[in-house]
Amino acid sequence: MNPALPPNIAALKPYTSARSLCKGSAWTFMDANESPVPGIELPSLPPLNRYPDPTADHLRDAIAETYSVSRENIVLGNGSDELIDLCIRAFVRQGREVVSVDPTYGVYGVCSAIQGVSYRAVTLTKDFLVDIPAFLKAGRDADVLFLCSPNNPTGLSIPKMHLARIVRELRGIVVVDEAYGEFADDAGIPSAIEMVKEGSENLVVLRTFSKAFGAAGIRLGYAVGARPLIDVLLRIKPPYNVNSMTQAVGLALWGKREEMRERVAELRRWKIPMVETCEELGCTVIPGIANFFLIQPPKGRNADDLLRRLRDEKRIVIRRINNTPILANALRITVGTQEQNRSFISTLSSLLSS
Question: What pTM value is reported for the model?
Answer without folding.
Answer: 0.91
